[in-house]
Amino acid sequence: MSLMDDIRITGDPVLEEVCEPVADINDEIKDLAHSMLETMYEADGCGLAAPQVGVNKRLVVVDCEWGSGKKTPYVLINPEIVETSDELRTTGEGCLSFPGVTVQVERPRRVVVHATNLEGDVMRYEAEDSLLAVCLQHEIDHLDGKTLLDHLGPMARMRVKKQVREAIEAGAKPGDVEKPSKAPKKG
Ligand code: NI
Fold it and tell me: Is residue 184 in a domain?
């Protein structure tokens, strides 16, 4: 089931809460994970965290190879970052909760994450200098009530909030990483 209409936009308090661990991988959690994957693909995103659809649970879905045309979905339940590099790297990040903007964020280049999958197995994910390395950290941030705004100083934070408001007014939808063009349609 698509949850596109449930995607929460920055400013929504659910995006600032620390999420509860998933205690039991029951049908409700499995349905939620599948709906989140469907929603992520529909929005052309590479990751989605449960609080972004209004659910205060430590669950994220990721697929960083989707652009290549082949689906490689990961479901991470109760993910934990167990290792990060000291060296940092800055990349432009979008977020389904920030329609129409891309924000430069500095994060560790390398990350190791442990998480449970839908089958109940504990998995290890390691990524360096890749979209996956960024995406894992970005999505796990969401579970701790952090968003792109938490990586910015006060001035940049105000600027990004304004950019999101303007992009939404211009018709931006979750998944858009820049403000829609106001250019008149050619007829
Ligand atoms: Ni996000």
Answer: no
What tens digit of pLDDT does each residue of 111-158 get? 999 999 999 999 999 999 999 999 999 999 999 999 999 999 999 999
CA 120 / ligand 1 centre spacing (Å): 25
**24 within a domain of the structure (yes/no):** yes
How many domains are contained in the chain? 1
Query: Could you report the per-residue pLDDT of 74-107, keeping only the tens digit for each?
Result: 999 999 999 999 999 999 999 999 999 999 999 9
Gap from CA of 96 to ligand 1 centroid (Å):
6
139 is catalytic: yes
| Cβ-Cβ contacts under 8 Å for 161 (sequence gap 6 or more) | 10, 11, 149
Plot region of 41 (φ>0 → left; ψ -120 to 50 → alpha; else → beta):
alpha
Cα distances (Å, whole numbers) of residue 122 to 27, 83, 117, 135, 165: 19, 16, 6, 19, 40
Catalytic residue among 139, 166, 169, 178: 139
In a domain, 176, yes or no: no
Q: Is 138 helix (H, G, I), strand (E, B) or coil?
A: helix
List residues bridging with 80 in a β-sheet.
114
* Cα 95 to middle of ligand 1, angstroms: 4
